[in-house]
Request: fold
Amino acid sequence: MSEPAIRVEDLSKVFRLHTERRSSLKEIVVRGRSRRAGSFQALEGVSFEVPRGTTVGLIGHNGSGKSTLLKILAGVYRPTSGGVVVDGRVSALLELGAGFHGELTGRENIYLNGSILGMSRREIESSIQEIIAFAGIGEFIDSPVKVYSSGMYVRLGFAIAVTLDPEILIVDEIIAVGDEEFQRKCFDHLFRLRNQGTTIVLVTHSMGLAAELCDTAVWLDHGHVRAIGPAPEVISEYLGAVNENEALSNDEPGMIRAGLDAVRSGSGEVQVRAVEALDQLGRPLPVVLTNEPLTLRVHFDVKVPVRDVTIGIGFIHENGTGIGGSNTREHGVPIQLEPGVGYIDYTTDRLDLMPANWRMSTAVRSHGHVYDMLEKAFPLPVRSSGGSTEGGAVRIHGRWGAAVQEDSPSTAPSAATP
Reply:
């Protein structure tokens, strides 16, 4: 067994919290006496190893110590106690433009950062065209970086970090600020580096990415290691805790009410009051999970008798795209309503909406006449009980057959064959 690329032993980091001194009587009167300096324990007793050539994801809530740990691994911070051994050339991308000199051009900053990473001028020159092409900032490469946008900063910083042949790559969530095209390019390159044997430590809030890219996950919670192990297992444990905390914070488990910004239209003889999320036994669901049974109970008020009523519900992704919905008419469910309150259930044996902050619309109609319409009014956060790596908004059903290996090259016609 080779030595691990990174070894962290009983690591702790304490920050001193300094306060501003009151240097005049006026400041004391206006702002009060200065408080005593305190301390903040960012990390305590953290230990783990990163085998060479593996990828480790640091997960946890904001403020759990993930970025502090990365900065210690990159040599930006010194530990208060404990030890860190990093064996290999480290390339780190921690903050926007970290190490950039604003007055220098992008090209000059490539040479500067390459030198900081221990590269010779010849090594940098052999990679500079690849870096420029990866960054994709065009003619701005010869402009001072002080005129760059935040997106241009991160494109150039990431291109330098991953292109200069790193042995150990340390990446914060910083790549999330790039546009969709650049993020895909980043992730593709991370997969290539991983397959080439580069040791990678990254912080990510994308559990799908962590499950797909990482061999191991380290869950940090308020500076302590809560769990270490295979990425899918640790991610499932972490998401379970997050879902439990979200459920505890819900004052009305399962009850979904229209937002304050909801716009209601229609004549008003029937109005939807709320939508309730229930499990398969009819119990309130504090957290809606993808791929699990779900009943949505639509509660309504009826002011006058109405006949031949159609009640519908629609689902809108957090990006604003309407995915689809269902109504009682297309399912052949006749509805006749008398004055009072009531409800109707829409049930699915398996929710195919992927994790996202969905919204629901409701409608009550009769032969084209609208009694009540609430568009995108009801929030429906859908969560995952594990690190789902499926893309898109909904799950597509189907079956794969067994692979068939032929003895000779395939003679099947190509797409271009008439």
Observations:
- Residues 231-248 form the longest helix (18 residues).
- The chain has a mean pLDDT of 86.
- The radius of gyration is 28 Å.
